[in-house]
User: Fold this.
Amino acid sequence: MSAARVELHALTGVRGIAAWAVVLYHIRLSLDWVPQGTIDVLAKGYLAVDFFFLLSGFVIWMKWGTRLREGGWSAAPAFLKKRIARIWPLHLVILASGIALALLLAATGRHAPREFPFAELPLHILLVQNWGFTDALAWNDPAWSISAELGAYLAFPALALAIDWRRVPSSGVIAAIAALFVLLASVFAWNGASGLNTDIARLGLIRCVLEFAAGTAIGALWVRWRAAPNVPAIMAAVVALSLAAATIAGLLPEALGAPPAFAAALLMLALTSNARGNPLDNRVLQYLGEISYATYLGHFLLWFAFKLAFVSDANAVPPALVALYLALVLASSIALYHLVERPAQCAINGWSPRRLDPATR
Assistant:
């Protein structure tokens, strides 16, 4: 079966888990009733974005790598249309809600916070706000990664046409992945960045592009090893656990240890995805994965508005209110997915410019 047609259900499930890890990361400082050890774990939730970047490269290489190589540059517009349909409409809706919130604050006599700079709105509308034009996150913070993803999408046709991973020996593919991660760590070290969440406005784009590129190479390894996945899956799991342990122990800097650990974990998850009894392949996690983009993009501004409406002390939000907020995140994710994300995708993907009748030109 063609790689483009294979559905790896476990990867959809883990995408939902990753999205909720980001949600908990953003609310962690309000959970004064949660043990500090748990808070410390939640504080690493931003690393889920690195997994997203790797997964994005993996999935897009599987679905579009061959199509772009066979179709050449003429296939690039169709690819970019699909990707814009995937990310842009929901982003605009969430951004519009942020604008409405800022205007409401102004109308009620309160100054909109500095996180809502109207002068930067054109950058956010075009999804280029994280391309080095700004020095801080603004409006809807999670959208920085969508801006970076757009940069990776624009670069992908050139990558797919320049490198056919299928023709590179497995040792060469692994070496290329390692080189990408070393380059990423070197960029962060050169800029004095202690963690992957450091200086996102400047380093987020390169972080995304390099991890996305590594994800495409991981897809090539999966294609080679999926017929006999047991040994490579075990080896990938060992590598992932070893790198994670070394990073947690401080033996490796986060920028050097975490991305390859996630890469090995992604390969292991892909190789074992359709195994019978896989706990990630169940209906609940599948659905959470399907709506994960809405969860990821919508939760941040919802938390901002929720605190304005219901919270008196942002550092100590009671469990009942946290439960209410999480329920609202789930409900809004379902609504955004079914009422905005999917209909907009179908509309854009189904649109094609009509040729003008010669008599009307």
Notes: Residues 3-348 form one domain. The chain has one domain: 3-348. The chain has 13 helices and no strands.
